[in-house]
């Protein structure tokens, strides 16, 4: 039980653009047992029905772009970045 | 300097900040809101940005341009919020002693900014529909 | 439109004249009087033009750019007379639906203008000497 | 005599930049018996000591760029164009 509790991480997620609209909010705090950013997206996609597959996204942790398989730790702020279209 | 702006961009002031007697060439790029895109009549745009990450990535792109090209100065400002037809979405200004570097760096900056900076565009069409561009097109 | 101007150039007005909701990209090139050239400190420049031939050749270059690239509009103004450090010698503005054409055409216009339009530049140096540039350098 | 007189052409020459300075004037009218633009430059260079060789110049007749061997006719306005340096 103690071990399982340690694996639960508190994560903040920021949503932008189509993800923000599909989630219906810009930011949420959640607890998760998954290990990587990519796994977190899959979990959230299953729950909220995001239309974009993970292969179309980049991820940032604490304002740094990170690989899709980057490990999560408690307290991380995660952003999923849909294809950008500035300019 | 890479910045986001909620206010209309002021290219005259932005360019004045680049004035420098070392520079012989100044190339600017402005992105304007077009009245059409891929056959649809556009009536307005929204730009949304991840502010902190966008300014960080933008600063990185400017630093890359300074490393690659012999520049005097370079800056870039991107508008966020709701834009009307003809409004300026992005302003990039580059100065250099010679035009080769100024053209190449300006082109590098707009290409990299479009590819990498976390800014998203939603087009609102004349018919009332809208779509996030490049963002798995869907009508909302 | 290709024009010569005895007055300082006004890039804000020149660019405003290009405003068009068909255009998504605007690239400008400005040539500024540098404070040095090939190791010499410059204090001022003189530009002299064959007015009628320059405007004719300039119009031809603009027409070539319109044929080669998919443009919305393009214009070019060159200053003549005595210019101080930092003054603008040439302004070129190009608009297009997309940036590829705007960059390519702007580059074409400045390259061709420099190579073909009958305008001559005399540099006045800090030491008091002067020289016609590209014009069989000699001190006068 | 009549034939020789017919070959004499009235030409206006415009000078710019270094040629204007070396000639000491911007425009002159002259009469010449030479046949081409290039020959006219050689004649004027011999007379006024222009430093630029003809191989560095272009020529215009009546506001049209013309080849160096273009024929002259009476009434032509000729410009010799030193290497340009706009922009």
Overall tally of structural domains of chain B: 1
- Give the overall pLDDT of chain A as a whole number: 94
The secondary structure category of chain A is alpha+beta
Measure the end-to-end span of chain B: 35 Å
Walk me through this protein's architecture.
The complex is a heterotetramer, with 2 copies of chain A (87 residues) and 2 copies of chain B (140 residues). With 87 residues, chain A is of the alpha+beta class. Chain A has one domain (13-81): Beta-grasp domain (Ubiquitin-like (UB roll)), CATH 3.10.20.30. Chain A contains 3 helices and 5 strands. Chain A has a 5-stranded mixed beta sheet, with helices on one face. In chain A, strand 3 (58-61) and strand 4 form a beta hairpin. Chain A is globular, with a radius of gyration of 13 Å. The termini of chain A are far apart. The model of chain A has no long low-confidence stretch (mean pLDDT 94). Chain B is an alpha+beta fold and 140 residues long. Chain B has one domain: Molybdopterin biosynthesis MoaE subunit (Aldehyde Oxidoreductase, domain 3). Helix content of chain B is 30%, strand content 39%. In chain B, the strands form 2 sheets. In chain B, strands 3, 4, 6, 8 and 9 form a 5-stranded antiparallel beta sheet that branches. A 4-stranded mixed beta sheet of chain B has the order 1-5-7-2. The N and C termini of chain B lie far apart (35 Å). The mean pLDDT of chain B is 94. Chains C and D meet through strand 4, helix 2, helix 3 and strand 8 of C and helix 2 of D.
Helix/strand layout:
The complex is a heterotetramer, with two copies of chain A (87 residues) and two copies of chain B (140 residues).
Chain A: H1 2-7, E1 9-14, H2 17-23, E2 27-32, H3 37-48, E3 58-61, E4 64-66, E5 77-81
Parallel strand pairs in A: 1-5
Antiparallel strand pairs in A: 1-2, 3-4, 3-5
Chain B: E1 2-5, H1 11-16, E2 25-32, E3 36-37, E4 40-49, H2 51-68, E5 73-79, E6 81-84, E7 88-96, H3 99-116, E8 119-125, E9 130-132
Parallel strand pairs in B: 1-5
Antiparallel strand pairs in B: 2-7, 3-4, 4-6, 4-8, 5-7, 8-9
Helix pairs in contact in B: 2-3
